[in-house]
Amino acid sequence: MLLKIAAVVALALALAGCQTQYQEMSFTGGVSAMPITSDTYRIISRGNGYTDAVTVQDYSLLKAAETTLATGNTHFLLVSGNDATSNTVGQTSGHMQTSVYGNTAYSTYTPGTTYNIVKPGQDLIIKLFNSAKGPVPQGAVAAQEVYNNISPRVVRPKKPAA
Fold it and tell me: Which end of the chain is more exposed for a tag (fewer CB within 10 A), N or C?
């Protein structure tokens, strides 16, 4: 029983390592910010089949905060959000095994398995504000606070050793 629990924990840890990391958009997913106007940005986040939807939401909010701070602003307002999750189907192949006993052959066929793959995604449109330049609208979020709360819990790519 203890061996089964250890195997399940090891598998969970291995799969957690496969989730999309906080990185620029790539074939495995990621996040990017694209300017629409000087104070409005589109944030696009995509995960792979091992990434939780909450992780993609964290990536979107963190990128919004980083973009806000990088442009010299202090707050961002969520103008719109869109669930960009995609669903696909995967299939394992079946296999047949034949054993011969004397003059008789016995075959066993095991069919493949069909499974769902959910790739979470999120698109945001944000508007940037600077509290030093004027009033910030109600509902705007302090970018530094978002950064401080979300940044420690995101998975980032490991930097190569020097």
Answer: C
pTM above 0.70, yes or no: yes
- Residues facing 76 on adjacent strands: 128, 141
Within 8 A by CB and 6+ apart from 149, the residues are none
Strands 40-46 and 75-83: unpaired
Q: What is the DSSP letter of 155?
A: -
Cα Rg, the chain, nearest whole Å: 23
CA distance 51 to 34: 23
Q: State the pairing for strand pair 104-110/95-101.
A: antiparallel
38 three-state secondary structure: coil
User: Domain-by-domain residue ranges, the chain?
Assistant: 18-88+117-153
Q: What is the pLDDT of residue 9?
A: 46
Instruction: For residue 118, count CB atoms less than 10 angstroms from its CB and return exposed for 0-12, middle for 13-18, buried for 19 or more.
Output: middle
Question: What is the helix (H) or strand (E) element at residue 31, kind and residue range?
Answer: strand 30-37
Q: Of 113, 73, 68, whose CA–CA distance to 94 is shortest?
A: 113
In this prediction, residues 26-46 reach a mean pLDDT of 92
Residue 61: other Cβ atoms inside 10 A: 24
